Amino acid sequence: MCKREIYVDMDGVLADFFGCLSRQYSVPNWKTLIDPKDKPQFKKHVTDDVYGSDFFSNIKKFNDADNLIKMVSKYSKNGYTLLTTPLPGDEKHTQKQKIIWVKKHLIDLPPKEIIFENKKENWAIKKDGDKEIANVLIDDHNVNCENFQNKGGISIRYQSGIDTLEYVENKLKQINF
Q1: Counting beta carbons within 10 angstroms of the beta carbon of residue 138, is it exposed (0 to 12), middle (13 to 18) or buried (19 or more)?
Q2: Can you give the pTM of this predicted structure?
Q3: Do both 110 and 151 map to the same domain?
Q4: Per-residue model confidence as pLDDT tens digits over 11-23
Q5: Residue 53 has pLDDT above 80, yes or no
Q6: Which has the closest alpha carbon to 96: 56, 51, 139?
Q7: Is 132 found in the same domain as 119?
Q8: Residue 135: how many CA atoms within 13 Å on its side-chain side?
Q9: Which residues contact 75 (CB under 8 A, 6 or more apart)?
Q10: What is d(CA 45, CA 151) in angstroms, rounded to the nearest whole number?
Q11: Number of domains in the chain
Q12: Which of 47, 62, 151, 156 is deepest in the core (most CB within 10 A)?
């Protein structure tokens, strides 16, 4: 029988992307960096600083990341897949940096695969003959979750430090594996 896949995002779920961003700019909260009237300029400024750097390989792992992965592994008999977005315009370098991060931080709980994808919804459905099986995405970004669901998948929006592991486990319990 074909089992549904569980995809876990890296930045914001396992890795403290926004905390790293805050530390890089010496601000208490990364949101203070955004001028609501000029979001494109903020995005360009930050991405220009991150392009070609070791930013992604040096992000701290969230304290609850290992427990999240252990929980996911309990529900998914065939492991989990890391589904992460490369930085547009710097894809190859971002991929290398994220692989370094995985080798550094997930050595005891490695993903069975790392997929670099800008459109996570492309992984929402798994074909098993004539059947379509909804896969699961654990991601911190609302748009990714909504797009994944709109393509037939199941998403769990999870932000480490804000949501609890119990919240994720209750969602996973509701899913037929």
Answers
A1: buried
A2: 0.88
A3: yes
A4: 999 999 878 776 7
A5: yes
A6: 56
A7: yes
A8: 25
A9: 6, 172, 175, 177
A10: 33
A11: 2
A12: 156
